[in-house]
Amino acid sequence: MWRWIVVLLVVGVLHWIAAQWVERHRATLNPSDDEHVPVQVALLKPERIERNPAAVPPAPAAQPATRKPAASKPREHVLTAMQSAERAAMQAARAASDAVASAAAANAMPASSASSASGASANASANANSPQPAPGAKFSVPPSGDLQYDTFYNGVRNQPGTIHWTSSGERYEMVVSVPLPFVGTFVYSSHGRIDAFGLAPEQYVEKRGHRAEDISIFNRADRKIAFTRTPATLPLPDGAQDRFSMVMQLASLVRGDPTAYKPGVTRQFFVVDSDSGENWPVETIGDETIRTAQGYLETRHFKRLPRREGDQRRIDVWLAPSLGWLPARIVQTEPNGTQFELVWRGKLNAENGAGTDSPDGSANTSPSAAPAAAPEPAPPSPVDSTAPDDTSGNIKP
């Protein structure tokens, strides 16, 4: 009897030692592609977004031809930056110069052509005084809607996660709900304005299960970021994002100009958590095909690079052009190998690959909602936090 007890104890100890060894050497046993980082070809920092003002219609001709009115196209939220004072002054000076030149030419012309010259001068002056596009990053905000994603924790399917997104072209609101096993539902919300640098959060709220809310406040009047979790404050830079608005900011930038995001191109975001903030370098990896429950999707893979030496937490995002460049998949990998995953669960339209309404409440993407794009915004997986890893079930992207 005692011999068997001793044998069982020895076997248990050996198994415990083996488990500890496997846990410590998991990275070696299951190597990731972290070591293979594509050559960086460009670093994009926050910049103003391009403004595309409505064109001023030209003056009607003496006898305008009768035309059948064209069907109006749905207007998509396209972001812009305000024109600088210097640019406006240059345009005004150019308009005045053109007007003077046109007047002089009209005086030198015969009377028969004076009227036509004056008309041309008026049109030129009107075109010169009309607002012109200001240079900047192209930015297209996805249409409003509710989205659903399948959620996985270490490969095990959980209840669907949802994200509610609304955008009026001037303001936005995003509410993300993610169920986690044994922990409860985590709710993340972000709301704010849309300014010259894209999404401009005013308040970011984290509600983890039954714990009290943690709130980050973006005070744009004082250009400070305050927290309810800590008395510390941070300066508020242009283009600052929270952990979830950052994903929608990236999606809007790629929607605006997909060709700008080639493999190796890295865009930098300043991202705020519930108690701190830091720069996130997000690199374009390349085009990949992913699998969803409804079929395969062509996507573009983005990965957040290490923020500092020894940073092993990883976040990967796959944006799908057929979904309007909204996230089709988000994977967060913890330093110990734990993975949290969101995968698009909307139905796929055979004609354009866009999401469509489904009885289970999946996201809807209508061709009239936005050109070239479809479903509404995708829910970011809990994105990264600068706090140390915690084992209480809190997912920290």
From TrEMBL:
Pfam families: DUF3108. Residues 51-76, 113-141, 351-397 are annotated as: Disordered. Signal peptide: none annotated. Residues 388-397 have a biased composition (Polar residues). Residues 62-71, 113-137, 362-373 have a biased composition (Low complexity). This is DUF3108 domain-containing protein. It comes from Paraburkholderia graminis (strain ATCC 700544 / DSM 17151 / LMG 18924 / NCIMB 13744 / C4D1M).
